[in-house]
Write a structure and sequence with these properties.
The chain is mainly α and about 375 residues long. The protein has two domains: about 180 residues, Up-down Bundle (Growth Hormone, Chain: A), CATH 1.20.1250.20; about 190 residues, MFS general substrate transporter like domains (Growth Hormone, Chain: A, Up-down Bundle). Helix content is about 80%, strand content about 0%. It has 15 helices and no strands. Helix 4 runs antiparallel to helix 8.
Length: about 375
């Protein structure tokens, strides 16, 4: 592995820290700032909203001025925001720092673009996407444990934020002195501030529109059941909400194993791309139906973990194929579109979730129907793949 690739992976790994190490601090932050749990949740809601608004600017800046300069600017913002969160005792400043954090931190599209830039062919690109998403979920396991450890050792509620500040300082040094520019196809253009224009443009592109629609449908279904899982387990099986943490721990472990080992050595090796598109969608549809019909907690968890394993094959497969069918000058933009669609799901899922709950509709039944429609889309989609 060359130095440039190592630094990109290192930056990505530390960036994951920003999401997951924050989670264990929530109960203590409620007490520290003397606010309600609902008010603290604003810090999480700001993530989806401001990242969605900032992404169209960030990827365009990286296309115009290069990935390195844009990434360095983002890291300065995240460093300042984490430092503010570490030192402030005022809740309004804390929220302001979180907003700065999500505006400048959400550089996943830049890092994904860098991994795409350094990939020599489709196979290497898929492998590189697999690496960063594997690290994403490994981080999901490690960083909350680090946060809990810092709190358990009674090192003060702000200790995780000092930890974050140190990590981003390391990233700033690595980018400034060791990272080389990966964007060799800079463009001159006027920045478009409309966060929806690129999404609309991509949906008009006959080469990738069906891929994007299919991809969005699947990640929306995943977002819905993941966020509502604690409530569902509590209402259907009487599982206390705090015990869902153990379920999520196993979820993250399954994802990490699947991304780190099975994707490359089993999924990509054993099945063609066409078969993977069919397998993912048909089995996701089947598992949604099984989750709807089962009344036994053990079987529910078995089906659920099988669904999780398939779910995280979706990201690298769809992402790689969409990028492959996009012109190299537009790949930074398409990375942003994929990331922004993930942010959009965080706005949409509460609407669907509460409609299902208020009308006593099983979310698994609802999404089984949606994924069945997606299978019809996939049947047309596979004919568009360039072999």
């Amino acid at each position: 592995m060359n130095l440039n690739k190592f630094i990109i992976i290192l930056i990505w790994f530390f960036d994951v820290l920003a999401i997951w190490i924050f989670i264990p601090t929530l109960p203590d932050l409620v007490k520290y700032y003397n606010v309600s749990a609902n008010q603290i949740s604003y810090a999480l809601v700001a993530y989806a909203f401001f990242s969605f608004l900032s992404w169209p600017v960030l990827w365009q800046l990286s296309d115009i001025f290069g990935r390195k300069k844009t990434l360095f600017f983002c890291l300065i913002g995240t460093f300042i925001s984490s430092l503010l969160m570490a030192i402030t005792s005022t809740y309004s400043i804390f929220i302001l720092a979180r907003i700065i954090n999500w505006i400048t931190w959400w550089n996943i599209s830049i890092i994904s673009s860098m991994m795409s830039d350094i990939s020599k062919d489709k196979k290497e690109r898929m492998s590189n996407m697999w690496i960063i998403w594997a690290l994403f979920w490994v981080g999901f396991i490690i960083w909350p444990l680090v946060g809990w450890l810092l709190l358990w050792l009674n090192l003060w509620v702000k200790a995780p934020f000092w930890f974050m500040t140190t990590a981003w300082l390391i990233e700033l040094i690595a980018v400034a002195f060791f990272l080389k520019e990966t964007n060799l196809n800079k463009v001159v253009k006027k920045i478009n501030y409309n966060p929806f224009s690129s999404i609309i443009k991509s949906l008009k592109d006959s080469e990738v529109s069906l891929f994007i629609i299919s991809f969005f449908t699947l990640i929306l279904s995943f977002s819905l059941y993941q966020w509502m899982l604690p409530l569902f387990l509590s209402e259907e099986f009487g599982v206390p909400w705090y015990q869902t943490w153990y379920v999520y721990s196993w979820v993250w472990l399954v994802i990490a194993i699947n991304q780190a080992f099975l994707l490359k050595k089993f999924w990509l090796k054993s099945f063609s791309l066409t078969n993977l598109f069919y397998i993912m969608n048909i089995w996701i549809f089947t598992l949604f139906l099984l989750l709807f019909f089962t009344k036994d907690l053990i079987f529910f968890l078995i089906f659920f973990f099988l669904l999780i394993a398939l779910q995280w094959v979706v990201w690298p497969i769809y992402q790689s194929e969409i990028v492959e069918n996009t012109h190299e000058h537009n790949r930074g933009e398409i990375m942003w579109v994929l990331g922004s669609l993930q942010s959009v799901t965080m706005f949409i899922w509460p609407i669907f979730a509460w409609i299902c709950i208020d009308n006593n509709i099983s979310m698994f039944w609802f999404w089984a129907i949606i994924v069945f429609i997606n299978i019809l889309i996939v049947m047309k989609l596979v004919w568009k793949i360039k072999w």
